[in-house]
Design brief:
The structure holds 2 protein chains of 2 kinds. In chain A, helix 3 packs parallel to helix 5, helix 4 runs antiparallel to helix 5 and helix 12 packs antiparallel against helix 13. In chain A, 65% of the residues lie in helices and 0% in strands. Chain A is an all-alpha fold. The longest helix of chain B has 34 residues. The chains are: A mainly alpha, B mainly alpha. The interface between A and B is large, with 44 and 28 residues. The complex binds protoporphyrin IX containing FE and copper (II) ion (CU).
Chain lengths: 535, 43
């Protein structure tokens, strides 16, 4: 079948890429090249999805309809979410996985390098296909990223294309997940036990299993939509004996684990950044592993908390309410352990650490609003309001995205061999953090006061908060240009980075020079745990 | 890429990598198909 890393002998005497120019990227099998491709792609998609967000925020700057018609507005909310979830944040973490997992576990590469190439190269085509639906007769899907029937079945010609794009994105994720699991389990240096693996590796191992469990369910769900539309089935059509609510169950059986697929790799990155800048080992490494596994398990049994208002038996409401609230326990363990890692540490506040600390505070705000919404009677008020929008943006932006940005600053010197501009990094941090709060905090208030989500117009009393939100969004968007500049500058030059980069951080990735050579660990390194054999 | 010297160890590793990857792929496929069939069966 596919080639494995052990087959790749043609590169024996090379120290750099086999191909040069465009071919290096098209035919890339090196995990570092593919990691770079993923990260660059994610950065581009951040701006594509961001542009859509700004169209939404421009329209919502004032009540009434100014710029776009309502149907296009809903196409924007749908595409913004799909692009950000499948095109930006998931590829970003896949990029980190490619770059860092082999180096962290002392492997020469990913286990299935050609599959890896395919996982990546499906993405640009899938994303282009998805965006191209905007230009088809009838426009892109306007159902929201949740794709609920019957609404989504009213999509014009674009419908099958959008579904196909989602299938491709799903296949890409599944292949990446398989590759990651196999790499971790089969290519880890023999001297590193499972429990000794760094947290980023652990969180990706668990995430990859979640992906294999739920991506096929999403694929199944959207295939059933396709069959209802074109092949006369009635899975979701009441007239034919089906039930549209079934789709909601299917979607959220995927959807809730999906939000943890997004956040767990960020948890992993934070678990590296905080110890490095506290100059202490991660507090409770094993507890972190168990908490992550626990979160992943629970995330599979809470999906109907998205459907309280649809109507369900009391026992169902109770189960999903309590199961959801249980997730706060392992999540609390993690927050506690990060805090305890900093306790009495020799802290310094370089840019990655600033993003990690902001993550701690702001992700926790999102976690708290989550617990609020998990309570059934309260959710009847919050559901489908801007309060939900505030919740998930707090966990996704200063949560997942800040995790990715922290990781980017943390490992940039390892990737490029240069230190990034610390002063610009700090400016980027402060702009981003101020604007993210300006954007999303007011949304709690308008949501509580009753402003619905996914509607292009609103009652006049919500105007002030919406104006703040829109100003924040534009500020946030433009601040990210600074991130691009910092990365560009760092790639081009800067102070030389040492192998360790930071102050004696833990991990095999810091034992190789910066920039990391094209091939690392061709012979499995001997891993000696730094802090005794206790973890 | 893995320029480690070829040994029986490598052979074993390669076999394991392939077996594991195929098994995981089959699991994903089974979830996909099994799921649709299950939903179809519910009447
Ligand atoms: C303590 C942890 C969390 C709890 C208790 C929680 C709870 C909830 C609940 C009950 C809803 C549904 C609200 C409604 O529609 O009425 C919801 C929505 C949502 N949550 Fe969370 N959540 C948590 C963490 C997260 C995380 C970590 C993420 C992502 C990184 C996330 C992303 C989302 C998204 C995207 C939605 C909205 C989905 C949609 O309707 O489009 N949540 N959350
Ligand atoms: Cu959920």
């Amino acid at each position: 079948m596919s080639a494995t890393v052990a087959d790749m002998h043609d590169s024996h005497d090379h120290h750099g890429p086999v191909h040069t120019g465009i071919k290096r990227w098209l035919f890339a099998t090196n995990h570092k090249d593919i990691g770079t491709l993923y990260l660059v792609f994610a950065l581009v998609m951040l701006f594509v999805g961001g542009l859509m967000a700004l169209i939404i925020r421009a329209e919502l700057f004032q009540p009434g309809l100014q710029f776009v018609d309502p149907d296009f507005f809903n196409q924007m909310t749908t595409m913004h979410a799909l692009i950000m979830v499948f095109g930006m944040i998931m590829p970003a973490f896949a990029g980190f996985a490619n770059w860092m997992i082999p180096m962290m576990i002392g492997a020469p590469d990913m286990a299935l390098p050609r599959l890896n190439n395919w996982s990546f190269w499906l993405l640009p085509f899938a994303a282009t296909l998805l965006v191209s639906t905007l230009f088809m007769p009838g426009g892109a899907p306007a159902s929201g990223w949740t794709l609920y029937p019957p609404l989504v079945l009213q999509t014009g010609d674009a419908f099958p294309f959008a579904i196909f794009a989602i299938h491709l994105l799903g296949i890409s994720s599944i292949m990446a997940a398989i590759n990651i699991i196999v790499t971790i389990l089969n290519l880890r240096t023999p001297s590193m036990s499972l429990l000794q693996m760094p947290m980023f590796v652990w969180s990706w191992l668990i995430t990859a299993y979640l992906l294999i469990l739920v991506m096929p369910v999403l694929a199944g769900g959207v295939t059933m939509l396709l069959m209802d539309q074109f092949f006369g089935t009635s899975f979701f059509e009441a007239a034919g004996g089906g039930d549209p609510v079934l789709f909601q169950h299917i979607f959220w059986f995927f959807g809730h684990p999906e939000v943890y697929i997004i956040i767990l790799p960020a948890f992993g990155i934070i678990s590296h950044v905080i110890p490095a800048f506290s100059r202490k080992p991660l507090f409770g490494h094993n507890a972190m592993v168990y908490a992550t596994a626990c979160i992943a398990f629970l995330s599979c049994v809470v999906w109907a908390h998205h459907m309280f208002t649809v109507g369900m038996p009391l026992a169902g409401q109770m189960f999903f309410m309590f199961a959801t609230m249980l997730i706060a326990i392992p999540t609390g363990v993690k927050i506690f352990n990060w805090t305890a890692t900093m306790w009495q540490g020799a802290l310094t506040f370089e840019t990655p650490m600033l993003f990690a600390i902001a993550f701690l505070f702001l992700f926790t705000i999102g976690g708290f609003t989550g617990v609020m919404m998990a309570m059934v009677p309260l959710d009847f008020q919050y559901h489908d309001s801007y309060f939900i929008v505030a919740h998930f943006h707090y966990v996704l932006v200063p949560g997942a995205l800040f995790g990715a940005i922290a990781g980017c600053y943390f490992w940039l010197p390892k990737w490029t061999g240069h230190m990034y501009d610390e002063r610009l990094g700090k400016i980027h941090f402060w702009l981003t953090t101020i604007f993210v709060n300006l954007t999303f905090f007011p949304q709690h208030f308008v949501g509580l006061a009753g402003m619905p989500r996914r509607i292009p117009d609103y009652a006049v009393q919500f105007t002030n908060f919406n104006m703040m939100s829109s100003i924040g969004a534009f500020g946030f968007g433009f601040s990210q240009l600074l991130l691009v500049y910092v990365i560009y500058k760092c790639v081009k030059g800067g102070a030389k980075a040492t192998a360790e980069v930071w102050d004696n951080p833990e991990g095999l990735e810091w034992t190789v020079p910066s920039p990391a050579p094209y091939h690392t660990f061709e012979v499995p390194p001997v891993y000696t745990p730094r802090y005794g054999a206790t973890h | 890429m893995g320029a480690q010297a070829m040994t029986t160890d490598d052979d074993n590793r390669r076999r394991k990598i392939r077996t594991n990857a195929i098994v995981l792929g089959l699991v994903a496929f089974a979830v996909f198909i099994g799921f649709i069939m299950l939903m179809g069966l519910r009447g």
